[in-house]
Design goal:
Belongs to the sulfotransferase 1 family. By secondary structure, the chain is α/β, with parallel strands linked by helices. It has eleven helices and nine strands. Strand 8 and strand 9 form a beta hairpin. The N terminus is likely disordered.
């Protein structure tokens, strides 16, 4: 009986211990879940767009030229594909960069041209979705008639190591457009976008530098994207400089018609989009499109464009300007253009 009592007492102790441990674990779950939630939100908004799910899986082989009156019906939900006459082709021109440089504005301005057909959403094919295959990619494109240009824009291509080789594999004749902007203001704009979606981030200064105002942290993507010369070096291994057009993000704001005119020349298009299509919106501090014939009102980019930047201490700005200066000068030499950032 004594042995039986001893076993009974042991079972009671274990049951009590198990209850205590369960209570402690439940108490830890709430803050742990909150941490996981915040980290997930940061990753969602700080990383480039994710690969959209495919409607059906195409054969992973390069796609031959599409015969007339046929089309691939493979596409991703959420990426609208225009219907109608014509056929789907691989893009002859790509806006490959850079994030927060003005790529969305340029794409919307170019879409005014009757000979430009462009995918509105960013497919992220050459950086995140390449395993879907070229047939899948072509199936996303809008239909075009002979003489029209197919385009898409994904700004993260410019900083993706594998993108130049992959694009060259699709077509070595692809024309490449890079919209660049002062890398300091670009980084602040990048941070402002992430902060608007993920409140509670560390300060810009804390992310840009190690140990206060120590070395610049080039591991942070907002800083790394602005090393334009380094990224261009990678692209020039596959494409000659003549295949590139570098658009000034600053001039795209101050003189949109002039910059869009250069792009139309580069694409071999007639200058259809001119200053008559633009007006400057003083509230947004950004050019908007005048209303087209039959349209009810002028069209500006979304509310996320032209958002106010957080205040960044002048010492931080000056340190970053000094850091970028040699990279900027090399970029000027490589492109033959002085963008006036120094």
């Amino acid at each position: 009986m004594a042995g039986s009592g001893g076993l009974g007492g042991g079972a009671g102790d274990l049951q009590g211990a198990g209850t205590g441990q369960g209570t402690a674990l439940r108490a830890l779950r709430a803050p742990l879940a909150l941490v996981v939630l915040l980290l997930s939100a940061y990753c969602l908004f700080a990383l480039p767009g994710r690969c959209p799910p495919a409607a059906r899986a195409p054969a992973p082989v390069p796609a031959p030229a599409e015969p007339p009156h046929t089309s691939l019906r493979l596409r991703a939900p959420g990426l609208p594909v225009a219907s109608g006459p014509g056929r789907r082709r691989f893009p002859q021109a790509l806006i490959v960069g850079v994030k927060k440089g003005g790529t969305r504005a340029l794409l919307e301005f170019l879409r005014l041209h009757p000979d430009v057909r462009a995918l509105g959403s960013e497919p992220h094919f050459f950086d995140r979705c390449y395993d879907r295959g070229l047939a899948w990619y072509r199936g996303l494109m809008p239909r075009t008639l002979d003489g029209q240009i197919t385009m898409e824009k994904t700004p993260s291509y410019f900083v993706t190591q594998e993108a130049p080789r992959r694009i060259h594999g699709m077509s070595p004749d692809t024309k490449l457009i890079v919209v660049v902007r002062n890398p300091v203001t670009r980084a602040i704009s990048d941070y402002a976008q992430t902060l608007s979606k993920t409140p509670g981030l560390p300060s810009f200064r804390a992310l840009a530098f190690r140990h206060g105002l120590g070395p610049v942290d080039t591991a942070w993507s907002a800083v790394r994207i602005g090393l334009y010369a380094q990224h261009l070096d990678n692209w020039l291994r596959y494409f000659p400089l003549s295949h590139f057009l570098f658009v000034s993000g600053e001039r795209l704001v101050s003189d949109p018609a002039g910059e869009v005119g250069r792009v139309q020349d580069f694409l071999g298009l007639k200058r259809v989009v001119t200053d008559k299509h633009f007006y400057f919106n003083a509230t947004k501090g950004f050019p908007c499109l005048k209303k087209a014939q039959g349209s009810g009102r002028p069209r500006c980019l979304g509310k996320s464009k032209g958002r106010p930047h957080p205040r960044v201490p002048e010492a931080v700005v000056q340190r970053l300007q000094a850091f970028y200066r040699p990279f900027n000068r090399k970029f000027y030499q490589m492109t033959g253009q002085d963008f006036g950032w120094d």
